[in-house]
Amino acid sequence: MKKQVYTLLAVCGIFVFILVAIRIANSNAPLSEAQGLDFQTPSPPLDVIPTDDPSRPGPTAVPLAMPLSADQALAKALEIDGYVAEREQPLTDAAKSAITVIQYKTLVEADATIGRQSWYAPDIEADAGAVWVVVIPGRVRLVGGPGHSAADADAAEARWLEGIAYKYSARTGELLGVSAGDVTAP
Fold first, then answer.
1. What are phi and psi of 167, to 5 degrees?
2. DSSP track, 42-105
3. 146: which residues sit within 8 A by CB, 6+ positions away?
4. Are residues 173 and 84 located together in one domain of the fold?
5. DSSP secondary structure code for residue 160 in this structure
6. What is the mean pLDDT of the chain?
7. What is the distance between the alpha carbons of residues 62 and 47, in angstroms, rounded to a whole number?
8. Are 83 and 152 within one domain?
9. Which pLDDT score is estimated for 4?
10. Does one domain contain both 108 and 154?
11. CA angle at residue 47 from 175 to 67, to 5 degrees?
12. What's the domain range around 13?
């Protein structure tokens, strides 16, 4: 009896498979429509739209109650710098006086100022809004992450870079990026 039930189930499964295959094959619509799926072809990426363009997509991230100030951006950069950067010379008061904090209208403008070429989608630019760039000069290396080992002295020496820059959204207060090596203050 069990054998007959299993045979019947197998025959029904094959029958359903054949009916679905015939229905799809007889459909004049593309496969995605025959299956009831709604695929949309992605459009090519748009050029970055200036922030003063009214047709620019609106931001999606929740903004701060008050925009991030220069002092707040500097405090955030110094805090994270203590965790991710190892300095050849400690940050003394004299060294801290060489730190620059400048606000830029867009991420692309901020990156260009520190010697980086970049492109961001319009919605990312809109979310970031104005960008604070905090440049801390001096030899530095980033610590932690894959491939970093204090025991590998030769590799560790090669990781020393000149300068580090932290980018923060004035609109949301979020860290947008860290760039190290050949970073110069504007």
1. -115, 130
2. PPPPPPPPPTT-TTSPPP-SPPPSSPPPHHHHHHHHHHHHHHHEEESS---HHHHTT-EEEEES
3. none
4. yes
5. -
6. 73
7. 24
8. yes
9. 75
10. yes
11. 30
12. 2-34
